[in-house]
Amino acid sequence: MKRIELVEKIFDIKREKNLSWKAIAEEIGGYSQIYIMTALLGQMRLPKPQAAKAAALFGLTPNEEKMLSEVPYRGEQSLVPPTDPTLYRFHEAMMVFGPTMKEYLHEEFGDGIMSAIDFDLQMEREPNDAGDRVRITMSGKFLPYRYHQPEGNFPALGYKED
Amino acid sequence: MKRIELVEKIFDIKREKNLSWKAIAEEIGGYSQIYIMTALLGQMRLPKPQAAKAAALFGLTPNEEKMLSEVPYRGEQSLVPPTDPTLYRFHEAMMVFGPTMKEYLHEEFGDGIMSAIDFDLQMEREPNDAGDRVRITMSGKFLPYRYHQPEGNFPALGYKED
Amino acid sequence: MKRIELVEKIFDIKREKNLSWKAIAEEIGGYSQIYIMTALLGQMRLPKPQAAKAAALFGLTPNEEKMLSEVPYRGEQSLVPPTDPTLYRFHEAMMVFGPTMKEYLHEEFGDGIMSAIDFDLQMEREPNDAGDRVRITMSGKFLPYRYHQPEGNFPALGYKED
Amino acid sequence: MKRIELVEKIFDIKREKNLSWKAIAEEIGGYSQIYIMTALLGQMRLPKPQAAKAAALFGLTPNEEKMLSEVPYRGEQSLVPPTDPTLYRFHEAMMVFGPTMKEYLHEEFGDGIMSAIDFDLQMEREPNDAGDRVRITMSGKFLPYRYHQPEGNFPALGYKED
Amino acid sequence: MKRIELVEKIFDIKREKNLSWKAIAEEIGGYSQIYIMTALLGQMRLPKPQAAKAAALFGLTPNEEKMLSEVPYRGEQSLVPPTDPTLYRFHEAMMVFGPTMKEYLHEEFGDGIMSAIDFDLQMEREPNDAGDRVRITMSGKFLPYRYHQPEGNFPALGYKED
Amino acid sequence: MKRIELVEKIFDIKREKNLSWKAIAEEIGGYSQIYIMTALLGQMRLPKPQAAKAAALFGLTPNEEKMLSEVPYRGEQSLVPPTDPTLYRFHEAMMVFGPTMKEYLHEEFGDGIMSAIDFDLQMEREPNDAGDRVRITMSGKFLPYRYHQPEGNFPALGYKED
Amino acid sequence: MKRIELVEKIFDIKREKNLSWKAIAEEIGGYSQIYIMTALLGQMRLPKPQAAKAAALFGLTPNEEKMLSEVPYRGEQSLVPPTDPTLYRFHEAMMVFGPTMKEYLHEEFGDGIMSAIDFDLQMEREPNDAGDRVRITMSGKFLPYRYHQPEGNFPALGYKED
Amino acid sequence: MKRIELVEKIFDIKREKNLSWKAIAEEIGGYSQIYIMTALLGQMRLPKPQAAKAAALFGLTPNEEKMLSEVPYRGEQSLVPPTDPTLYRFHEAMMVFGPTMKEYLHEEFGDGIMSAIDFDLQMEREPNDAGDRVRITMSGKFLPYRYHQPEGNFPALGYKED
Amino acid sequence: MKRIELVEKIFDIKREKNLSWKAIAEEIGGYSQIYIMTALLGQMRLPKPQAAKAAALFGLTPNEEKMLSEVPYRGEQSLVPPTDPTLYRFHEAMMVFGPTMKEYLHEEFGDGIMSAIDFDLQMEREPNDAGDRVRITMSGKFLPYRYHQPEGNFPALGYKED
Amino acid sequence: MKRIELVEKIFDIKREKNLSWKAIAEEIGGYSQIYIMTALLGQMRLPKPQAAKAAALFGLTPNEEKMLSEVPYRGEQSLVPPTDPTLYRFHEAMMVFGPTMKEYLHEEFGDGIMSAIDFDLQMEREPNDAGDRVRITMSGKFLPYRYHQPEGNFPALGYKED
């Protein structure tokens, strides 16, 4: 059994039962809609109670339920760059603003990254007279590169004031 | 003269004069720091008054000043996927959450995209006891796919309620 | 169920029933032939009334009918560059005239793009004594890059007269 | 001397002399603006009288003037797919509508291609209350695949009525 | 049904019935052996009378017969560059002699291409004491790039004598 | 010194002296025009007497003359697939007819290849009332795969009659 | 039926019957073990008597037996570069020693190649006190590039002494 | 000035002055040899005191010294997969053991990653009678994927015991 | 039967029987957990006694048991670079520290590689107050490039002191 | 200074001084011609005494002499697959015979590789009445995958008889 087949089955049943993602997320509960969607789309795992609820909702087998709570191999179906226009625009924004984000991050925080693991993404509709807008908010913990002292511990150096 | 060489020259003078992006943006003024940085990094154009201020600040020639206000060929230096870890995390987040964002967008708005042109990106430091976070906010106008009526005009159909 | 399999099924039935695209589009109605073809080929969605007509015409299951009105993942079967000579010529024309179109667009409109979303494509036969010609007309809304004012609103700047 | 260096030099002088493409095309004359731009951008050749005018306008050397009237190696600088958003939208439209154009062409004309050689591309501004539009018109001669008769001549078969 | 599966079925029956391509082409008739082979290999379409003969010979279903006379999506199975040594040598010859052919063509004919559509390819055995040779003859119509006059017609300019 | 720079220098002098390939080949002599062109374009070596004549014609240094008679690293500048339309058509023809040529070759000769080394390519103009044609003739020695007998010699087996 | 499926079937039966390649080659006979293995692995054809013996040994159908004696499409399953460490080392050796082999060959033989068609490869165990070694011997006919005389015959020029 | 040019300059002076990496690291001091090497090779930044020592040692300009303490664009020169055999073996080990490391990590820690930012790598010679060995020790902080509670805070869930 | 299908079957049964890798390795025994996992994941072979135990544990057929003890084609499923974030971090670490490891290795040992064949990889949890860490230890035999003496033996030269 | 530039300089002087590789190898001495060529072509290092002789022969600077004895970054200029026909044939042979060599190696030696490090390659002319042949002999030490015993030492298991 492949995770991608399970994702396809979930799409099939969602279509058949005429379910919206909003309704699915409310039914499964306990986590944000974005998180639950990402798990059902095969990019996150569902905690066991949520996997149980998903199994009930979609009529999954015990093995499928278990797979839902396993850590997936992420990103394996992705086309890079994406061909779908909706996905491509996110890619394009990251490409055009990438160097700016890198420079800004280093000037503000020092050497390091925005974590994509201790990370949260939210989406919402932003009403606007000139046409409603999509608002995406990403919040990731700043992780500084750690300097390796000879004695082997990992102090958090003041990498901006050195 | 190539745009990439101008970007390199700006980096050289920024380094020599010990300028921060924040100070540069304040000096040039009129637009957000993110926008000005993106233009100086060769991904946006600077309006002429701002190009003039940038030329004064960096000691640019008239032709270089003019190039700053020309529309650039965007993204030509990008590695896809990026090798730099700071840049890669943005790519990874878009890859992992991409299908979720697409599904969410279509359920909320119907068929269409988040514009990457009528688009705004902001970054800020988000203080947090467990370690400060990077907050990135993207706001793009939702653009619905337009259905093509036989008569040739372009009505905005209620593509969700059809 | 995968969208590509539905496209294949539609091709099979079109072949079996000896249907032309023109007849199919007339039967489904309400939208241009190009739009309906693009939807049946898996690159656009069909509004529900049209999906219902398509389902009747092709003998689709309710789930297949529903899939026809879902937003597809576009472009996933595309070879880039295309190998098919008919498709390749379109690619080649865009490659050869691409820089010209970019320069023309910016000189005429300023910084921005021709939307591929608020976009219409028409094809027609152009009679010509030296051999009939194919005429393709694309019309896309010009979308200007928006400058981000510090105060956060999104004015449409006169990016050509700045 | 490389053609790409000549293109860069033309851009430099265009910038220095504050020339628009429209003015350049009028000065060189004899052909459409799109054609002259495409030649100066290194994708077409200029006939000799036009190359002479271009040389006068841009102050080119005799060898550069001669190169302008040579057949170029087309498309060598192209990124596939393009990273620039303005260029990408053309690529995207061809990808999304590609199968439709192929099917339409074969149903209307039979087996063959739209020539990209006996081909014309025009661009114009299309005024529109909801925002002006970009209109691109491509006209290419239909070229039927020729069936090879055993006797070795190349009749134009009625490939649609066979 | 996919065209590639039909090609595979034809190979299976050819193997089973111990047919040679020569015998197949003679049986189907009306066109050159090379053309008929190319169609059965999924790169050309068969006119209907020939498709009917092929269907009788290979025991095809009506839908398979019909598919044989449809325009295929060409080149989709090609590996570029080819891995098969027989195919690779053709690729290599085009790579090594490519620039020569381009220069020769332009000097002899002016700016343009050898059509791959109005095109004929023949192969034959060339007896030779030092070992027989393969002779491949390609004949394609020269297609000149057309210059676009402002008035919009498409004269064939004397592109070599301009 | 790189071979590609020598090719570029030869192009520069050819342009400056207004030489045609035909005139160059006649001046250098001793081999076909196609061969001499291919050598000057960096894909073949010139025998020493011809290299001496080329050096005189183009005003080359002794080291450049010597390089002309060295075996080149072939194909290193090739784009695969080519972007130039003139070159692309050759690629396309090989892609579309590739499987046919392979099948034909094996049926006619058995297992083996058409040599691209013991190989000749000729081009000529083929007058035709419907528009002149380009005729390309390739003749390559058939090389059979040799079967390896246990005793280690290399008999030419009757690979078709085994 | 695809050749790769036949290879897989042969592996399955080899596993089931606990056969070694050495035993298989002895049973089939007539050719070297390396040759027979290469054919069973889908990269060479088996002569008919050997195909008959292989069919008996592996219990193949008549069509599978016939496929074994057909010329395969070589290299289609290859990953380039290979990921398997055993295969990668061969690739690496060719990459590191490639320029040396090319220079050596041209100095010793003149312009040309080592044929990969009139070619023999042997492997053997080379006992060694410091650990046994793998010895691979390749022997390929040297094929000189042929110079094309104007008169059209193909003399073997003394390409080293010209 | 490009970082890669600075790396090249450092190599040149290291060669000229006959310096070992060990001696360089001792002279610069304050951090592990691996860290200092990685910074001088353009993949980490040097804190300012170390950059000053490096500048003195290598005779760098003030701008070069400053560049050494800037955050680099990492990995831009990397070939993926690497062609160098020494580098390739690291790639190969990660490829062969990758799935194992992923499975082990998730079973031991739950869903998450080994940080490559809060990360330390050490190398040492491991004496061994059968031939000395290279020992590489990587230590990275485990970073659990954080579950996003509806209320928006980021609790560390017991992702293994859910 | 394909190795990848056997891996998938093992995952299915592991899921169904609720087995941990730790328990599986203990049950199979005789080798380290990492080694046994790597074999079950299709990247190493299991010795026959271990294959027998694995067959009993997972209920494999005799042919599947045998396949487990065959040498696999390694790395064939790998995405390069990996898309999964857990796998990507290993790739990233090798990319960022790659040049350092190469330089260190050569300075410490001379010209050669760390073997990925005579190689051991261990993983363990490293408790740490700031968050537990993942420790990965790789130990590979140093293999010096051997210099080839004219007399043909392979002495271990003192490649550092030459 | 880049290694590739040093290789180019050596080629330039070899050409100028009319040196053969054979003469160069004899002059430098101490190692096989193949080894010395590989080092001068930038894929191996020269021991110091040989580097000194090479420096004298080619008139190198002290830094260039030193670079010759440094370990190179191997394979960085390689095109994969190679475009040059001479190089391509080696690639093709490895591709066609790759699976055979892997299977043969494992049956003869067990699980492991032929080392490309403890490795020797020789080339020679093999006189033959049907045309002289190129003989390439590769001899690499067989390296068995080592099984990792729980106790941590690395016994050489009888991997074929387990």
UniProtKB/TrEMBL annotation, chains A, B, C, D, E, F, G, H, I, J:
Its EC number is 4.2.1.104. It catalyses: cyanate + hydrogencarbonate + 3 H(+) = NH4(+) + 2 CO2. CDD domains: Cyanase_C (cd00559). It holds the Pfam family CYNS_N. GO terms for molecular function: cyanate hydratase activity; DNA binding. The active site is at R89, E92, S115. Residues 76-147 form the Cyanate lyase C-terminal domain. Gene3D superfamilies: Cyanate lyase, C-terminal domain, lambda repressor-like DNA-binding domains. Keywords: Lyase. The keyword Electron transport does not apply. InterPro entries: Cyanase, Cyanate_lyase_C, Cyanate_lyase_C_sf, CYNS_N, Lambda_DNA-bd_dom_sf. Belongs to the cyanase family. Catalyzes the reaction of cyanate with bicarbonate to produce ammonia and carbon dioxide. This is Cyanate hydratase. The gene is cynS.
